[in-house]
Amino acid sequence: MGTTIVHSVLLFDGNTTHQDATIAFEAESGIIRSVTVGTKLQATPDASVIDGKGCTLLPGFIDSHIHCDAPGVLDGGEESGISQAALRCGITTVCDMHSDPVAVKRWRLRVANEREQALQMGGKVSMPDLKSALYAATVSHGYPKSLLLGENPSDELKATINSWPSVTEDTASEYVKNSKENGADYIKLFQEDCKCFAVPTGCVPIPTITLQRAVTAAAHAEGLLVLAHANSVESSELVLDAGVDGLTHTFVDQYPTTQIVQKYKETNAFLIPTLTALSTLTGEAQDFRDEFAKAAERKRLVDPKTLELMRKSVSWSDHGVKFEYAVESVRVLRAQGIDILAGTDSMPGLNGTALGPSLWMELAMYHRLCAMSTLEVLRSTTSVPARRFGFDDRGVVEAGKRADLVLVRGDVVRDLQCLWEGDGILKVWRQGIEATL
C-alpha cells in the first residue's frame, strides 16, 4: 500500500474549514503526511489519487459513549457486524463505558489483526478503534446489577454480574490499578438514585460521595480521567463535587438549575448528553427514531432485528421525567461554554439505539433541538472528545496525526444531512487503510 492523496476537497480539520485542500496519508504508518490548501501535490507513481471536488473530508468520528458488551439486554447480533455499521457511519473510534474485559480484548485483537492482514494482503478494515473503561466501579448490589438481575435471572447472568467489581473505599485504589494494568483508558462511575426510572426510589444502594471521591482520587493519581453516569440533577451534583472530569449522561428530572450550571463551570467538567438514549428512556422523539431507522435501512447498515429495535423505545422512566429537560440542559450548558461530546449509549439489543446510525441521530438532535451550529456539532464528535479524553493522535486532520478520515459527498458544514442523505459517506479510512462500506 502506498500513499493516498485527496485533492480539491472542502476540509473540515476538526476545528474550522478550508477550501481546495489536499491531504496526503499513508497506510503503512497510518499517519497523515501533509495537509495543504490551494496547492496540489505531485503524485508518485504508486499513489492513489482521489478528486475530492464536491466533497467534504473530515476527521474520523468519535462516539464518546457506547457499550460493546450488554449482559441482561436482548441479544443484539454478532459483535463484528455491530461494529462494522459504526465504521460505515464514519465512526473510527468508540469509547466503551462498561463492558466485560474479555469482550474488549476480543474487539481490540480483531482491530489489530485486520489491520495487519490488510497491510499484508492489500485488504480493507471493518471495525473502529476501541477505548474502554473495562468494568465500571460498581458497588455491591448497586446499579446496574440489581436491575439487570431482575426476578428470575439465569445462572449464566448471575455469574456474569457477580464477576463485576464491588468497590469500597478500602479497595478503590486497588480497583483503579487493576483496571489500568488490564488496559482501561479511563475510569467510569455509576451514580444512580433511580429517581428517573419506573422503579421505587432507593431500591438499590447508592454510592456515597466519600466512595466516589476515593475512586476519583485514585484514578487521577494514576493519570486516568474519571467519567460518571448520572440521570438526575442531584446525582450529577454529587459526582461533580467528587471531582469527576465528565458526565456520561445529562439529567432528565428537571430543568437545569443555576447551581448545576455553576458546578459544571467551576469544575470544567464536560458533558456527553446521550440524547438518543434519554429519548428512548422517556419514550419521546419517535420521529427521530423513525427517521434514522429509515436511513439505516436505506444504507443497509443494520440487520432486520436491529432495525426493528431502532424504532422501539425503552419507555421506562418515571412520570416526572421529560426529554425536554435533557434538551434544555444541553442548550444552557453549551451556551455557558461547557464542552459537549457526542455519545449515544448504544449497545447491542437496546431499544432505540444502533451503534453507527445512532450517532447521526445524536448529531441531528444537537443541531435541530439544541441550537448548536453545524461546526459545533462536528467538533463535538471529532476534536472536542479527542482533546478532552487526551487522545492526542486523532480528532483533527493535521500532519503527523492518525489518518482516521471520512469523505462525504456534498458540503457537510452547510448541510449536516449530507452524512446520511443522498450518496452520503463515500469512503472511510482508519489509520490510513480504507474501510469496507
UniProtKB/TrEMBL annotation:
Position of the signal peptide: none
Amidohydrolase-related domain boundaries: 56-432
Cross-referenced InterPro entries: Amidohydro-rel, Metal-dep_hydrolase_composite, Metal_Hydrolase, Metallo-dep_Hydrolase
Gene3D superfamilies to which the protein is assigned, alphabetical: Amidohydrolase, Urease, subunit C, domain 1
Name of the protein described by the UniProt record: Amidohydrolase-related domain-containing protein
Pfam families for this protein: Amidohydro_1
GO function terms (MF aspect): hydrolase activity, acting on carbon-nitrogen (but not peptide) bonds
